[in-house]
Design brief:
mainly alpha; single chain; about 0% strand; about 80% helix; about 160 residues
Length: about 160
C-alpha cells in the first residue's frame, strides 16, 4: 500500500471526491439502517394492532352470542309469567288452579332473578370487582339440588 502511494496512486484521503463518496455511502448506510429500524417498528405496531382487532372482533362476537342467549333465557320465564298472569286476570278458576298459576309465576320470577344475578356477577368479574369465596362442596348434593323435583318423580 505504501509503495503504491509512493508511485502516485491516489490514496483515499488525497482524493476529495472519493472522500465525499465514502461519506455519502456512510450516510446512506445510516439512513438505510434507520429506515429499516423504523420499518421493523411499524411492522410490530401493525402486528399488535391486528392482534387487538382480532381480539375485539372475538369479544364483539361473544357479546352478541351472550346477548342472544340471555334474551332467550329471560324470554322463556317471562312468557310463562305473562301467560299465567293473563289467565288469572281473565277467567274464573278454582283455588287450586289459582295456586298453580301464582306458584308458577313465583317460580319463574325466581328463575329470572337468578339469571339477572348471574349476569351482574359476570359484570363484576369483568370489572374486577368480584370477590371469590372458596368452600368445600359435596358434588352429590349439588347434582341432587340441580335435578328438578318432577324428574325425581319419573324415575
Amino acid at each position: 500500500y505504501t509503495e503504491a502511494m509512493g508511485k502516485g496512486w491516489p490514496s483515499l484521503s488525497s482524493d476529495p471526491m472519493q472522500g465525499n463518496s465514502l461519506r455519502e455511502i456512510a450516510l446512506l448506510q445510516l439512513e438505510y439502517q434507520a429506515n429499516r429500524d423504523t420499518l421493523h417498528i411499524r411492522h410490530n405496531e401493525i402486528n399488535r394492532l391486528q392482534t387487538a382487532l382480532d381480539y375485539a372482533k372475538k369479544a364483539e362476537e361473544n357479546r352478541r352470542r351472550l346477548t342472544s342467549h340471555v334474551a332467550h333465557e329471560l324470554k322463556t320465564p317471562l312468557t310463562v309469567i305473562l301467560t299465567n298472569a293473563e289467565l288469572l286476570q281473565g277467567g274464573e278458576f278454582d283455588e287450586e288452579a289459582k295456586t298453580r298459576f301464582t306458584s308458577s309465576i313465583h317460580s319463574m320470577a325466581v328463575q329470572m332473578r337468578g339469571l339477572v344475578e348471574d349476569m351482574l356477577d359476570l359484570a363484576r368479574v369483568d370489572q374486577g370487582d368480584a370477590q371469590v369465596h372458596m368452600s368445600k362442596l359435596n358434588l352429590s348434593d349439588l347434582v341432587e339440588e340441580a335435578v328438578l323435583p318432577e324428574d325425581l318423580d319419573h324415575r
